[in-house]
Every structure is written in C-alpha cells, then in structure tokens.
C-alpha cells in the first residue's frame, strides 16, 4: 500500500502545511490536529475535506505528532497488507501522541481496529465526515476565531498547489470477487454535475492547473441517476471540465463502449482533456476474468485499444494487473504476457494476488503458491519495462508540452501529458531551468529516454 502523498506524515515535518496553514499561533491556545493519510487518492480527497472542515472551525493543522492535540489516521483496508500497515500507523500514532481517531476504509471494521488498539478514541467508516468531526470535537473542543481563521481559497490541500484530485462519485456497482470496496463504500453515488463543476472552478481560480478526475468507476459517473437525460453523463462532464483551461486527466475508466466518444476530444489539443486513459484491465485470459467476475472480452479490448490509437495517436494508456489469481495456470499467465505484447500499454502496474478478508475470491480453489506468484510478477514487470522503454525511446526528438512539478539545484522535474503524479514517470530538464516554477507549462524537445523517464531541452 502506498501512502498518498509519500511525505504527509505528522512525524515528518511538512513545510507545505506550515507555510499554507500555520501551526499554533503565538499568544493563542489554538487546538491542533495531525493527519496521517494512507491509501489511494480517493482517501486523500477525504483527508482534505476533513482538514478543510476542521480548519474552518478554528483548528490548526500540525505537521508533527508532538504539536498535535490529537491525530486522525485515515486508513486503507483494501488488502490484508494494507490493513496491516494501517494498524502499524495507528500504533505509531498512539505511541507518539496517544490521542488517536481512526477513519477510512478500515474503519468499516471497528472491532478489527479496537481489537488491536483498544486505546483509540473513536472509529468511523469511509467518507463519514460528520462522525469524524464529532469525534474531534469530543476529544479536542474547537476554539474558533473568525478574525484569524481564514481558509485558503481551495480549502486545505495535501497536494502541491498546481494539481488536485477531483472526486466525482463514491462507491461501485461492480462485484469483482477480489474486491470489497462495494462493501466498504457502498454502491455508486455520483455527485451532481453542478457541484463537481463548482469545485473544479474554485480549484482553477486558486491556481490549480491539473485536475485528476477520480472515483471507483469514472466512466459509470451519473448512471445511478434515475432521471438522467444523457445515457453517459461522464461525456458531458469531461467536456465541460475541459473548458476551464486546466489539464483534465481521467483515472479509473472502465472500457465501456461510450468511452470511445471521449477519444476525439482527447485528440483535440484545445479540449483540455488529456490524451490519457487509466483503465484497470486486471487480466487478459477469459477464464481468469470470469473467475474474477469481470467482463471476459480481452480480444475486443485489443480492438478498442487499436481504435483509440487510430483516433488519437498520442494517447497514453495505463493499467493495472493481478498475477497469481486463484486458479491461474501457466497457460493463462502466458496469455496475459502475449496480450501485453500486443496491447503495448504505455504505463503498467502489477500486483501479486493476496486474500482480503470478506472477498469471495478467498474461497476459490487452486490458490497459487507465493514463489510462483513472485516469479510471474517478475516476468510480467520485465516485459512491461521493455515495452515502456521502447515506447519512450520513440518519443526522442519529439516536441511536447510538460508541466513543472518541482525545481531544485540539479533539474526541473516535470511530467508530460502522459504522466500522472506519483504513479507514472517524469521528464527532467537539466539545463536552462532556473527560472521555472511549479505549475508552469513549458514546451520541450525530448533528447533522451530511460525505462520510465525522459530528459529534454527547453524550447
């Protein structure tokens, strides 16, 4: 389980929190809260919302354990390894601070948490903002001062100023056997389009230049509305987001047929919609997909990929896969490798299957031994790395726009339109970069490629 972002721990000093929010102000006994945010970007958005509400009520945000009157741990519970890391984080917060409130996906199992850590002050489930606030109020009463407690225009953000996650829905209607997200977060609940656009507009006005659209199933956005006029509301929402002037990047997109209608807009540089799709394919063999309770149409998926690239040659495709799923044979795994060879995906992540308490896949027969899972993972990643290197090498000599993430003494660290923060690669400018700053979009020419990263000169 990756923590998001990697340096947002109360035990690690965070200059961004100190700069943007301040800690306890001299001469005022201001209550302060620390936050440990674990798991995926969707959980990170929950953390931002909680901190924004607390900041509006007069709480300071502490960048370390010692300066906090209490600590909130926003947990992940998707995999057993994630649960273990969440329990470790709770234990660390209890040791370093002693006053801990737990929320997030693992909070859906309060007995599991209190069984390991009976001293926690309260446990709430995912996106239960009011219950978290109630628990904070009980532990550390607020002390608001309307003359000094002002919020930044975009609220409290745990990401750099120039990009932000935009969560458009909660929950999921899929019934994948390896996943317990619907049990923890419920069925699909799409946010009203006007509310999404209001938030996006405020973020853009506050300086955000890249919107990372997230949900459990982005392409299903709005299909839970009984009175909807459009068959696929994500199409209208994506087009409207693209009018703001920011980069718009779509994550967690299932390859429904209507997704092809987004591709011509991605091919249009003026649309604002980046030529980037993050699609969780998970596997390629039809029998494996059936055991996962996922659509078993890998051949048609290859046809879709070919059509997307025909209509938008510069599109970047990223996906994640599971190896060692129960019953996966060597033949099934080889089918996955062959499919990857043909699909030539740009960015790929891979996980070794592990049981999750409550998942239906636990009861499947023929679980794959750990050494076999490791060996298959290594073979998969070796092939994915070779594909990535070849596709990046083909970009040498090309001109493109990149967004600057950070600048230090050695280089400007940037991302192309095909790179999402924290999960994809980087592009480095190591000459003529001193005047650049985070959030700038500049034009470059690529002059070197590695396995996952690019180097370029500024134009």
Automatic annotation (TrEMBL):
Residues 393-459 form the TRAM domain. Residues 31-141 form the MTTase N-terminal domain. GO terms for cellular component: cytosol; ribosome. GO terms for molecular function: 4 iron, 4 sulfur cluster binding; aspartic acid methylthiotransferase activity; metal ion binding; protein methylthiotransferase activity. It catalyses: L-aspartate(89)-[ribosomal protein uS12]-hydrogen + (sulfur carrier)-SH + AH2 + 2 S-adenosyl-L-methionine = 3-methylsulfanyl-L-aspartate(89)-[ribosomal protein uS12]-hydrogen + (sulfur carrier)-H + 5'-deoxyadenosine + L-methionine + A + S-adenosyl-L-homocysteine + 2 H(+). GO terms for biological process: tRNA modification. Its main location: cytoplasm. Its cofactor is [4Fe-4S] cluster. Residues 158-390 form the Radical SAM core domain. Its EC number is 2.8.4.4. Residues 1-32 are annotated as: Disordered. Signal peptide: none annotated. CDD domains: Radical_SAM. Keywords: 4Fe-4S, Cytoplasm, Iron, Iron-sulfur, Metal-binding, Ribonucleoprotein, Ribosomal protein, S-adenosyl-L-methionine, Transferase. SMART domains: Elp3. It is found in: Cytoplasm. Belongs to the methylthiotransferase family. RimO subfamily. This is Ribosomal protein uS12 methylthiotransferase RimO. The gene is rimO.
């Amino acid at each position: 389980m990756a923590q998001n972002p990697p340096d947002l721990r109360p035990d690690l000093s965070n200059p961004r929190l100190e700069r943007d929010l301040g800690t306890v102000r001299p001469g005022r006994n201001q209550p302060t809260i620390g936050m440990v945010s674990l798991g995926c970007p969707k959980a990170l958005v929950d953390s931002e919302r909680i901190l924004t509400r607390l900041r509006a009520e007069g709480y300071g945000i502490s960048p370390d354990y010692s300066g906090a009157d209490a600590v909130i741990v926003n947990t992940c519970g998707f995999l057993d390894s994630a649960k273990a890391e969440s329990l470790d984080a709770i234990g660390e917060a209890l040791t370093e601070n002693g006053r801990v409130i737990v929320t997030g996906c693992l909070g859906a199992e309060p007995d599991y948490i209190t069984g390991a850590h009976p001293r926690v002050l309260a446990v709430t489930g995912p996106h239960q903002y009011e219950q978290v606030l109630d628990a904070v109020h009980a532990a550390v009463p607020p002390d608001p001062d309307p003359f000094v407690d002002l919020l930044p225009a975009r609220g409290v953000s745990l990401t750099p100023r120039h990009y932000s996650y935009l969560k458009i829905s909660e929950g999921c209607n899929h019934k994948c056997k390896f996943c317990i997200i619907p049990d923890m977060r419920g069925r699909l609940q799409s946010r009203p389009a006007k509310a999404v656009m209001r938030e996006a507009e405020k973020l853009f006005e506050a300086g955000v230049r890249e919107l990372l659209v997230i949900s459990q199933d982005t392409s299903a956005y709005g299909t839970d509305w009984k009175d909807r006029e459009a068959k696929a509301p994500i199409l209208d929402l994506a087009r409207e987001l693209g009018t703001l002037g920011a980069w718009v990047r779509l994550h967690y997109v299932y390859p429904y047929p209507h997704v092809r209608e987004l591709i011509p807009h991605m091919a249009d540089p003026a649309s604002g919609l980046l030529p980037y799709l993050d699609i969780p394919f998970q596997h390629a063999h039809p029998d494996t997909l059936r055991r996962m309770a996922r659509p078993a149409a890998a051949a048609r998926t290859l046809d879709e990929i070919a059509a997307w690239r025909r209509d938008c040659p510069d599109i970047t495709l990223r996906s994640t896969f599971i190896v060692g799923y129960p019953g996966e044979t060597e033949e099934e795994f080889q089918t996955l490798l062959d499919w990857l060879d043909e699909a030539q995906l740009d960015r790929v992540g891979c996980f070794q299957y592990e049981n999750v308490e409550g998942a239906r896949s636990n009861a499947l027969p023929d679980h794959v031994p750990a050494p076999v899972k490791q060996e298959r993972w290594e073979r998969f990643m070796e092939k994915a790395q070779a594909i990535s290197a070849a596709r990046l090498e083909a970009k040498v000599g090309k001109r493109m726009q990149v967004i600057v993430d950070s600048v230090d003494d050695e280089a400007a660290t940037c991302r192309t339109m095909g790179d999402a923060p924290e999960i994809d690669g980087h592009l480095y400018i190591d000459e003529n970069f001193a005047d650049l700053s985070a959030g700038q979009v500049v034009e470059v020419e690529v002059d070197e490629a590695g396995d996952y990263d690019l180097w370029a000169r500024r134009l």
